[in-house]
Specification:
The chain is of the alpha+beta class. The protein contains 15 helices and 6 strands. It has helices at about 10-15, 20-35, 55-60, 65-75, 80-100, 120-135, 140-150, 165-175, 185-195, 220-275, 285-320, 330-350, 360-410, 415-445, 470-500; strands at about 45, 50, 105-110, 200, 210-215, 455. A 4-stranded antiparallel β-sheet has the order 4-5-3-6. A two-stranded antiparallel ribbon has the order 1-2. Strand 4 (about 200) and strand 5 form a beta hairpin.
């Protein structure tokens, strides 16, 4: 200790120790308590050594207990341990004897897997299993079981008047505020009592649902368990049938609405077509019409070009008189060309002969002039016909071009946009109507969706009670009695040691 730094406060002196020990802490506590440091003699520990009178020093200086001291303590407290053990056995026997035996019957339901093995299918199966379990626990299913087995008349489930409710009614009567007597519905109370014995759970990761019912009657527990399973299946089929009827009604309504919409769209299409004076509402038909008109226009352009070529050849013939540049298709022009060619051949033959007569040459020359004049007249008539045909062709060409322009303007107009919107609506509602009819037909003849939920095995009446479990009750009672006995023995030994120290 640092003597130069000591103070009068013992706590301050304690914290100035270089190495505080347990003995120094005990002396400090004694000084604070005012007991001084006097020690008494004449006390002995278990090994015969002297012990101080102060319990603080005794606790720190006593030797640890040995096996012999532990056995001695057990011999001293054997009576307490045996009494507690006997009390535990007696308590277990009392529980076993006076407890009402309960019998548990089990039914297993199997829910078939949905198509596919992906995570979504497994999740859907888990949700279906949980949903079926909750439906089995529902008040609706329980009420169906009560009505089927007439459980409300059995003493185990008969409704009993609540003591608290009777007391409240009595107090209300004394206060003059009694409620009018109205017959109470006992069904909620019976449902609550019946559901107390029901237990529904999914068996691991399987598709099995275990339905367990406990009752004081072995046969009744099996009957109730089977009734719950049957009621759940019947309820599932009834819900499916109701859902099917609702779905059919919904599809019929949707089909009628789609049919009405399709009729309105078709009427709108017809009205727009009457307003435009056309009969085509399909873009493909418009494209086909436009393509046909363009082909007709190309043919007319080719025809006009051919006619212009003929007129240019006729004009060249008029200038030169050369018959080789013209092509005439009329019989008269072809005959004139033939006779003119023969006359020219005779003239050439006569001119080549020596001593030809001038009269013959002059006659043939006059004949050629006559033929050429007739040919010119025929060519002029043909040119007039070609000009008329060319004008007709050009007029037709302008008409076709005008029709193409009108079609293009019609396609670019707002009327065409409104017509196409109405046409798309008609196509959409026609398709929707057909789809609703298909779904309606499928729904009407579809099997029940819960046909894959079935009972694996009916419940049988158990031969042995499920509770109370004799071995479990005995084990719990013995464990509690041992703990209580050890505790009481420990307290007794502690008090004995206290008396010895005193």
């Amino acid at each position: 200790m640092k003597g130069s730094q000591q103070t009068e406060d013992p706590l301050d002196n304690y914290w100035l120790y270089e190495a505080p020990t347990a003995e120094s802490f005990i002396r400090l506590v004694r000084r604070v308590r005012g007991d001084g440091e006097q020690e008494t003699e004449g006390r002995e520990a278990m090994d015969g050594s002297d012990l101080p009178d102060d319990p603080l020093e005794f606790e720190w200086q006593a030797t640890p207990p040995t096996v012999a001291s532990f056995l001695a303590a057990v011999r001293r407290q054997a009576k307490t341990l045996l009494i507690c053990l006997a009390a535990g056995i007696f308590l277990a026997l009392a529980i076993i004897v006076f407890s009402t035996p309960m019998y548990a019957a089990r039914v297993s339901l199997y829910l078939g897997s949905v198509t596919g093995g992906d995570l979504r299918s497994e999740l859907g199966t888990a949700i279906d299993l949980d949903t079926n379990a909750e439906l089995i626990r529902s008040d609706e299913t329980t009420a169906a079981v009560i009505r089927e087995l007439d459980l409300a008349t059995l003493p185990e489930f008969a409704p009993e008047a609540s003591t608290l409710a009777a007391l409240v009614d009595t107090l209300r009567q004394w206060a003059g505020r009694a409620s009018p007597d109205e017959p109470a519905d006992p069904m909620p109370m019976v449902i609550g009592k019946v559901k107390k014995g029901l237990s529904v759970s999914r068996k691991g990761n399987t598709r099995l649902i275990e339905l367990r019912y406990s009752s004081v009657s072995s046969a009744l527990s099996a009957d109730i368990a089977n009734a719950f399973a049957r009621a759940h299946l019947a309820g599932a089929l009834a819900r499916d049938e109701e859902a099917k009827v609702q779905r059919i009604a919904q599809l019929e309504t949707l089909a009628a609405r789609a049919r009405q919409k399709a009729a309105e769209a078709d009427s709108n299409v017809r009205s727009l077509l009457r307003g435009t004076g056309r009969v085509a509402a399909d873009p493909q038909q418009i494209e086909q019409q436009t393509f046909a008109l363009r082909q007709q226009l190309s043919m007319l352009e080719a025809k006009a070009a051919a006619l212009k070529t003929k007129l240019s050849l006729i004009a060249a013939y008029e200038r030169t008189g050369d018959t080789s540049v013209i092509t005439l298709d009329s019989p008269a022009s072809r005959q004139l060309l033939t006779e003119l060619a023969k006359a020219r051949d005779r003239l050439a033959g006569i001119q080549q002969q020596p001593g030809s007569q001038p009269q013959s040459v002059s006659a043939i020359t006059d004949s050629i002039r006559t033929l050429e004049a007739s040919l010119r007249q025929e060519v002029r008539l043909a040119a007039s016909a070609i000009e008329v045909e060319l004008e007709t062709t050009v007029a037709e060409q302008e008409s076709v071009s005008d029709q193409i322009s009108q079609l293009n303007a019609y396609v670019a107009s707002e009327t065409w946009s409104a017509l196409q919107a109405a046409r798309r609506d008609r196509i959409f509602y026609d398709g929707a109507y057909q789809e609703y009819l298909r779904q309606l037909e499928t729904t009407r003849y579809a099997p029940q969706s819960h046909s894959d939920l079935r009972i694996v095995a009916d419940a049988v009446a158990p031969t042995l009670p499920s509770s109370p479990n004799k071995m479990v009750v005995l084990a719990i009672s013995l464990t509690l009695s041992i703990f209580v006995g050890v505790g009481l023995a420990g307290i007794s030994e502690w008090k004995r040691n206290e008396r010895v120290r005193v």
